[in-house]
Amino acid sequence: MSERFSALRIHRSDGVVRSELEELTLDDLSPGNVLIRVEYSSINYKDALAATGSAPIVQRFPLVGGIDLAGEVLECTDGPCRPGEKVVVLGGGLGETRDGGYARFARVGTDRVIRLPEGIDTRRAMAIGTAGFTAALAVHRLERNCQRPELGPMVVTGATGGVGTIAIDLLAGRGYDVTALTGKTGESGFLRSLGAAEIVDRRTVEPVTKPLGRGLWGGAVDNLGGEMLGWLQTCAHGGWTSLPPVK
To answer: How does pLDDT run across 79-107, given as a tens digit for each residue?
Structure first.
């Protein structure tokens, strides 16, 4: 296949990072034994940091951006996937050390390919995206650690972000009483529509870390880290989880 296709490629020159739409061929892509025709990719905060050079996300240049993708398998030289199957790829170095989802085609290893189940197409998979997968992992881990609604309300920090909004939706749907901790109180109506029972302005919170604070919540999903995470460990007594984007 020698056709040329568009891609958002990230460059660094003299310490300055820039992103450009370019025409590439398959020979320009990172190696991999699975060739995928990309149908959708999501846009994450991490992608914005990478494309603008605001954080050292990209580890080699030039590189196609996009930390996830969904599409159709065109070729598979090893492994269980077959041409024509719809698949999703999350993390695995996409957009960091290998060319990612912001191109018409991508090459990946078979160990990173997940076959889409019945009822989820590629568009819906990327509407959920890395943020949704991360939120689901957080809830799954909490419940594996015996978190349950009767232990008390759950607090979600970074509530208006991708992981935060989906975590609120998932927790509320599973019967938890959810508190949204956010600096964007103008989005209170939106957060309540997702299932948040209470909105707390992050600016009113002083995350002072003590060995043990007053129990405020039964558990937490933290998207901020730092002092906030330390504080949550003292006042979310049921359980907590703080997950970075999926690797």
So the answer is: 889 999 999 999 889 999 999 999 999 99
∠ Cα 245 246 247 (to 5°)? 115
Measured between alpha carbons, how far is residue 233 from residues 56, 148, 160, 178 in Å? 29, 17, 21, 17
CB atoms within 10 A of CB 81: 18
Banded pLDDT at 245 (limits 50, 70, 90): very low
**Dist CA 87 CA 38 (whole Å):** 10
The Cα–Cα gap between 236 and 219 comes to: 5
Query: Which pTM does this prediction carry?
Result: 0.84
At 11, list the tokens: 């460059």
Q: Taking Cα atoms as reference points, which of 147, 112, 151, 143 lies closest to residue 32? A: 112
Taking residue 38's Cβ as centre, other Cβ atoms within 10 Å add up to 23
CA nearest to 64, candidates 74, 53, 76, 50:
50
